[in-house]
Amino acid sequence: MKTEEIHRLRDLTRTCFSVLGLSFREAEIRIGLGLGQFSRAFKGTRNFRLEHIFQLCQATGLHPAELFRRAYPVLPGEPSETERRLARAFGLLGGGREPGERGPGLTLRASRSRFRALSEPARQELLHLLVEEGLGNSNHS
Questions:
Q1: Phi, psi (degrees; rounded to nearest 5) at 113
Q2: Is the pLDDT of residue 86 over 60?
Q3: How many angstroms separate the CA atoms of 32 and 71, rounded?
Q4: What's the CATH number where 32 sits?
Q5: Which of 47, 55, 46, 51 is nearest to 17 (CA)?
Q6: Would you place residue 95 in the very low, low, confident or very high pLDDT band (cuts 50, 70, 90)?
Q7: For the chain, how many structural domains are there in total?
Q8: Are both 11 and 67 inside the same structural domain?
Q9: Is the pTM of this model over 0.70?
């Protein structure tokens, strides 16, 4: 799966360059990359990394969420058990989403901020619930 998904994202970003009429060289100049960095990554002579996706977004003004939504427009049929556990944990912080629901959800920064705003008894209860869900470390309880 790893290689398949890397190829999928690489091909999508290559297509974005083409559709937008932007050459690798133009993009490299726009964001101050050394010439040839994109072309080597897209030709396979250099590893294609997540950083390249974010650099493409920077060069084109495309938000990363927009690119990933294009790469993964449809969620899989049933949420994974991991997604269900994360949705429950974020829901406990008062801003999570149900599994499979689209929307902003909570960022890690917002989650930390909300956690810090809780009273100490509420924090302890939340930590206890996270441990029960298999998401927390029992050493923090």
A1: -60, -45
A2: yes
A3: 26
A4: 1.10.260.40
A5: 55
A6: low
A7: 2
A8: yes
A9: no
Is residue 76 one of the residues assigned to a domain? no
Which residues constitute the domain of residue 132? Answer: 81-140
In 3D space, the residue among 72, 66, 107 whose CA is nearest the CA of residue 86 turns out to be 107
Task: Retrieve residue 24's tokens.
Answer: 């690798």
For residue range 12-44, list pLDDT tens digits in order: 888 888 898 989 899 999 988 888 888 888 887
More confident residue, 98 or 68: 68
Structure tokens at 107: 């960022």
Does 55 or 84 have the greater pLDDT score?
Answer: 55
